[in-house]
Structure formats: C-alpha cells, structure tokens
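Worked example (supplementary).
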Amino acid sequence: ELKVEQNPLFLSMQEGKNYTIYCNYSTTSDRLYWYRQDPGKSLESLFVLLSNGAVKQEGRLMASLDTKARLSTLHITAAVHDLSATYFCAGPRGNQFYFGTGTSLTVIP
Amino acid sequence: EPEVTQTPSHQVTQMGQEVILRCVPISNHLYFYWYRQILGQKVEFLVSFYNNEISEKSEIFDDQFSVERPDGSNFTLKIRSTKLEDSAMYFCASSPGTASYNEQFFGPGTRLTVL
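After joint prediction of all chains, the assembly is encoded as:
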C-alpha cells in the first residue's frame, strides 16, 4: 500500500500571494500525479511527474518531485480566484492510484 | 480529444436496490478502474480490470460489488443491494497500460444517492 498525505488540508489565501502544497508518500515511487477537482466535478489532470527532479509549470502552478525525499510540491504563484478548488496528489502502486487527502484551496479577493 | 464517459450523471435509489453504473473508457485503453469519493473525502480505489478479469480490488469492493465488460465498449459497476453508505461519487478511469507506468484518465463521475 502507498500512503499519501497532503498538507495543508485547507488553505485560504489572498489573491496575489504565493503558497506551497505538500504531498508526502510512504514508499518509493518514481512518478506522481496532481489533479484539480472543482465542487461536484471530476478530476482534471494538472501534472504528470515522471522522475526524480521533475519540475513542470503551467500558468501560476508549478509542481516538482523529489523521489528521494518522497515529496512532491505544488507551488502557487500570485494566486487568483480561479484557482479555488481542491487539489489532489496521487501515486501509483500496483494497478491502482493512491490519492492524498486533498487540499481545499480558497483564494480570497 | 478522446475522453471517458459515464452514465447516468446522477442516480437515486432506495436502500436494498441494485444499481448499475456505466462507463465507456477511451477506446484504445486496456486497463479500466472504478474509484469512489464520499462527499468531502478523498478518492478511494475500488477495482481495476484488465483482459476481462479483475486485476486488483480494495477492501471496499466486497461481494456486493461486481464489474463487467459486457461488450467491446462498456465497462459497468454493479452494486447488488445498496446501502446508505454507498452514497458517493463513482469515477471510472482508463489507462493505456498498467497504472504503475501510465496516467489514468477519469470520467465525469456518477453521483449515487441511496435513500
């Protein structure tokens, strides 16, 4: 089993500010996925991180993976209201994905 | 762009009734999955399916649950006798290869409400 923990669980931040969401996982995994979920909606793929040291950026979001530390981060730069959503990281083990607890992000004007 | 589709989007049923949730995975994908998400909680794995067989299942996937690929396109999840605690969003996903090395693509979900 792969245990995946995220923190914080809830994040309220002002527009324009920066923040980082952390995703720790329990055993070695050389890939990690980030998803966004809006209320009542499905999981939208944000980033696929495939190797140690991988860094990907899309707009105001940047994700990185450190397989040695078993840590992935999702960094938000100059937050805007449209980024309000729940963010999940997920790691594969066997033939399933293990999801983190999710981080509910609210960006306040 | 190909996508996973699910029907119905919302299903309301009485406790003890059988429900079938339907999914059409992406056409050239070989692995299919069901996950569920109870309101406000994380996404939990139920079952994976490959080559017309279950390849992995979680503790949640007990004898009340079954999966089937009745034809070349549909992938179904049946809950035999629904309980109140089965109320959740159910997501179907598919991937071209095993989850260890391939991204999973998720459908829009079916919200199941058991009364």
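Two points are worth noting when inspecting this output. Chain B is about 0% helix and 50% strand. The mean pLDDT of chain B is 94.
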